[in-house]
Design goal:
By secondary structure, the protein is α+β, with helices and mostly antiparallel strands. The chain has 2 domains: 149 residues, FAD/NAD(P)-binding domain, CATH 3.50.50; 189 residues, D-Amino Acid Oxidase, Chain A, domain 2, CATH 3.30.9. The chain is 30% helix and 27% strand. The strands form 3 sheets. Strands 5, 6, 7, 13, 14, 15, 16, 17 and 18 form a 9-stranded mixed β-sheet that branches. Strands 1, 2, 9, 10, 11, 12, 19 and 20 form an 8-stranded mixed β-sheet that branches. Strands 3-8-4 form a 3-stranded antiparallel β-sheet, covered by helices on one side. The longest helix has 22 residues.
Amino acid sequence: MVQVRSAIAYDCDVLVIGGGIVGLSTAYAITRAAPGTRVTVLEKEPGPARHQTGRNSGVVHSGIYYRPGSLKARYAVRGGTEMIKFCAEYGIAHAVTGKLIVATERAELPRLHALVQRGRENGIPVRELGGAQIAEYEPEVRGLAAIHVGTTGVCDFVAVARHLADASGAEIRYGARVVRVDRRADLGVAVRTSRGDVVRGRVLVNCAGLYCDEVARLAGDDPEMRIVPFRGEYYALQRPELVRGLVYPVPDPAFPFLGVHLTRGIDGGVHIGPNAVPALAREGYGWGVVRPQEIAATLAWPGTWHLARRHWRYGAGELRRSVSGRAFTEAVRRLLPAVREEDLIPTPAGVRAQAVLRDGTLVDDFLIKQTPRTVHVLNAPSPAATASLPIGREVAHRALTELGG
């Protein structure tokens, strides 16, 4: 058992677990809001942004998809603008490209029109397009109708995370996997790492991403959710000249996934994806990565079974596209008819840390839980990277509240 004694010297004021973009943004926000506050970040990997931050589409989202008034909507709209300014100020690669959201079937048209309204409610300028007007932006893309969102862009989120780490003034300890937490409301927290080091702080901030629920339980809190990992698989387009910018399908509102989309990145290449299939490990970046203990924990969560019964048809389609290059190509051809199966080159996958409630509900907003001496970030899916600066400020505010309490 890790011991915390009243006479002990603290190693820091705020101890952050997780060196992804949210954890590093939190450290950065704390040191700016309260200069002199000592912050230590523990990251189990040898460098920052090795998981969700470094394995996504690199898109700076506009906020058009998210329910007005939700944390996602507020943080994405504000965060997208701030992220572009941040990248410009510090010389980080970025571009404001705009994007198309394309309806390819009549059944999608009402949802497309609903997105127009949602965008306007969120203060996002959108342009409605007929099928023939799509070619103004994307000559090779086909659809019945589309909307153009001019504020969407792309950036290098890994470079953003590295700058946040350097500029925060925090002590960053890499290779520091947390294995035990001892929290006492009157004395703060102490954590033990896999190396046997003990780090003591007055307040703990849990930004552990794929392992945030486990860290919450280590701290003695019931997160009332479980991370169920979903792998998103990507392909690079061998003929990038087919796509000028960003092209998305109309998303299914029943799921917090945006569907397989086309993204021209900051390097000029075009990648396609992701799908969303259950991963066999929290860091299950391929079918060959299997961790039986993690699978058992996922299957022991009642929400997993409720989710499977409710959405098995959707899941079956995603699995088919995962194991069949032809099926994945068919999905892409709905937007980009010229693409061929041989045009798609597999690239590294990502894993989404999706919070699932006991009743099988997929948590569709940011979820932050504050308990004595602790702040847990329990759901930070897309657009977390886009919104990381305002999210960091929110988490920092809560941590400083606990520190002053």
